[in-house]
Amino acid sequence: MTRHRRRPVRAAIASALLPFLAIGAAAAVEPREMLADPALEARAREISRGLRCVVCQNESIDESHADLARDLRRLVRERLAAGDSDGEVTRYVVSRYGDFVLLKPPLKASTYALWFGPLVILAAGAVAVAVYFRRQAAPASAAGAPTGAPPSAASTTPLSAEEERRLARLLDRETDPSRVDEGHRP
Amino acid sequence: MAQALASPASRSRLIYVLPVALFLGLAAYFWIGLGKNPHDLPSTLIDQPVPAFALPPIAGREHGLTAADLRGQVSLVNVFGSWCAACRIEHPFLMRLKSDNVVPIHGINWREKDRDAGPQWLKRHGDPYTRIGDDPDSRAAIAFGVTGAPETFIVDRQGTIRYKHVGPITPEVWTGTLAPIVARLRTE
């Protein structure tokens, strides 16, 4: 795994070089490798971009300068020229090297965790958040009522006389600005 | 009443714990995957018939190597090249297997840029191979799913690939892994 350090200068240089990297990547296909038919060549490029170079692993065979990548590019073109469909070419390479050569993992039973795992976690998290807020809105319902009364009973119990007086005082203070700071004056 | 309280309470905790547990589970699963060596690729060709291929001989030899040559007896198919440093390491051991007449070893001389490089290398270090196919542009190598050299395949009597070893064959690899497989395949 790569360790990222926060170095703004390095990051700036890296991002400045990025466009050149992209040009360099495209240049891995040498002119003499290319097919005369532009449509076929475009298909070959598209297929090559999806196939991992098994030597340098984080590059596609379209970007890689490894000898094996070059040989694979030629194989892709030969098969296309011989009339194979895009799927047939890709399937041939997968039959030799396994799913690993596909830069985009295929959707199948062994990759469900990869494709759906994060979505499942997100959904479970969303449910948990929703449940949390619903319980916040009705805190008494979760606790249950020991008397057997309906769960909402606690929130609708009439205020006692003392509570009524305190509430009136608080409301009164809020609506009458002259009394608000009374208690806080030095 | 305690019973009645326990169930909603534990359920309420479960709903918060579940997403975290799922995340940790998935993270652990992927973390273990990241720790594996990405160069140890499982071969898709195990228990598959050898791919159809027909390689010409290298300079100075009469016979090349074809899929048909790999039928009839248990054999090794060794991918090598004069440019490959690790091939030089296993070479003395391959010579020993040859002189002890242990098992036929066929060679795929992979990606020699110069047609004479392979034969010269074999002249210098010895030639343990029964048959050698010349594969300058990876045709057979790709068909065998080769990612680097040396790689060695064990092929059974029916011409089916039964094992793939990546890297040099050391005496330990031979006695520990490859020899038992060869012995087992011979009794089949």
Characterise this structure.
The complex is a heterodimer of chains A (186) and B (188). Chain A has 2 domains: 8-106, Cytochrome C biogenesis protein (Helicase, Ruva Protein, domain 3), CATH 1.10.8.640; 111-144 and 154-181, no CATH class. Chain A has helices at 8-26, 38-49, 67-81, 86-97, 112-137, 139-143, 153-156, 161-175, 177-180. By secondary structure, chain A is mainly alpha-helical. With 188 residues, chain B is of the alpha/beta class. Chain B folds into 2 domains: 1-36; 54-187, Glutaredoxin. Chain B has 5 helices and 7 strands. In chain B, the strands form 2 sheets. Chain B has a 5-stranded mixed sheet with strand order 5-4-3-6-7. In chain B, strands 1-2 form a two-stranded antiparallel ribbon. In chain B, strand 6 and strand 7 form a beta hairpin. The relative contact order of chain B is 0.17. Classes of the chains: A mainly alpha (186), B alpha/beta (188). The A-B interface holds A 1, 54-55, 57, 67-68, 71-72, 74-75, 93-98, 100, 113-114, 117-118, 120-121, 124-125, 127-128, 131-132, 135, 142, 144, 146 and B 1, 4-5, 8, 12, 15-16, 18-19, 22-23, 26, 29-30, 34, 38-39, 41-45, 51, 111, 137-139, 141-145, 147-148.
SSE layout and pairing:
The complex is a heterodimer of chains A (186) and B (188).
Chain A: H1 8-26, H2 38-49, H3 67-81, H4 86-97, H5 112-137, H6 139-143, H7 153-156, H8 161-175, H9 177-180
Chain B: H1 2-35, E1 54-55, E2 65-66, E3 75-80, H2 85-99, E4 105-110, H3 117-125, E5 132-135, H4 139-143, E6 151-155, E7 161-166, H5 171-187
Parallel strand pairs in B: 3-4, 4-5
Antiparallel strand pairs in B: 1-2, 3-6, 6-7
Whole-number radius of gyration of chain B? 24 Å
Instruction: Tell me the count of domains of chain A.
Output: 2
Estimate the global geometry of chain A from the Cα principal axes.
elongated
Q: Please indicate the count of domains of chain B.
A: 2
Put simply, the count of helices of chain A is: 9
